Amino acid sequence: MKVGQVDFNDYFSHYPDKDGLFGKFGGCYISEELKAAMAEITEAYYSICQSRKFIAELRRIRKEFQGRPTPITHLERLSDALGGKVQLYAKREDLNHSGAHKLNHCMGEALLAKYMGKKKVIAETGAGQHGVALATAAAYFGLECDIYMGSVDIKKQAPNVARMKILGANVVEVKEGLATLKEAVDAAFAAYSREYKDCIYCIGSVLGPHPFPMMVRDFQSVVGIEAREQFIEMTGHLPSAIVACVGGGSNAAGLFSGFLNDPVDIYGIEPLGRGEKLGDHAASLKYGTEGIMHGFNSIMLKDENGEPAPVYSVASGLDYPSSGPEHAFWQEIGRVKYDVINDEETIDAFYRLSRMEGIIPAIESSHAVAYGMKLAKTMDHGSVLINLSGRGDKDMDFVIEKYGIPEN
Length: 408
What we know:
Blueprint: E1 2-3, E2 6-7, E3 21-22, E4 25-26, H1 32-48, H2 52-66, E5 72-74, H3 76-81, E6 86-92, H4 103-116, E7 120-125, H5 129-141, E8 144-150, H6 151-156, H7 158-166, E9 170-174, H8 181-195, E10 199-201, H9 212-235, E11 241-245, H10 250-256, E12 265-273, H11 284-287, E13 289-293, E14 296-300, H12 325-333, E15 337-342, H13 343-357, H14 363-378, E16 382-388, H15 396-403
Parallel strand pairs: 6-16, 7-8, 7-10, 8-9, 11-12, 11-16, 12-15
Antiparallel strand pairs: 1-2, 3-4, 5-6, 13-14
């Protein structure tokens, strides 16, 4: 399959290029000192992670510890409620150990850290799922673990904060600025610049300087590889469309990577939050412009001074003022369509999936569920595969406190 000048038959051999670029997006815009650390990680990734021993160990961990492959579930009652012409399915990353897709790359990154002889892993987290996943991986491999998290998110995601601490991680509260995901990334990068000789920064999405967008995508590609095989086995054909939520975009990159070369419509869903006004949403791909932050070039939301703008989303894992550079590239060439879902639609989907299918989704994933439902209403026939990137245990107290429990 070819889109514009991009041939998806051999896509992963060419993107990113040697400089970490997806077209004009990506790269490595950091200090010379940190460039040396990134070069070390890149060299280790290309050598260690391609070795038979590493791959065999990671596959064993996926099967015996993570519980992979995760299943696909036919959302039959929800499909019937929408008219029954289009069938909805969910890739159940909520059933991955620790409750979300994040462990897919955290186990890979922590295993790489072990092979490199590092003693500690450092990361940021918003919704807490990446923090929990990395704390899980650190405990598994016997590594120290520092997780940087904004004060606002610590309050919203108390269950995940408790889980990180139980797993032995040091949760570092970040109080600067809006005290959410962007500030947590700032603090984690600052810590890494001081400690890089003894630790590895395990970034939580397809973000940051090269090689992280590539590395996280590759570790997450297990989602798309499994989903494609499972869907064909289950139904005999490919889905008509696939849908995933996009903040930084790791779960989406994982799912999309399995279908890029197929005649399948692909949708990445950003948080519209309270509306289109700057500061009321975190839909960078829809409303942003090209810019550099946290060491990579992508599409970002900017204030009047050209700095990263304040962002908002009901989902702590999506409130980031930029998006992964590969997503910016896929949008530019037209392979993936990016659209938005607001808070109200998200919470409605949260409750509808819970009550009609017995699955409580993460608020982040509920954006994809909401869009999948909306998309199905526009189609005459076919099927939609939704990436259910995480479970909603972490969100229940917050949702009940803010929105209450609707009557049946």
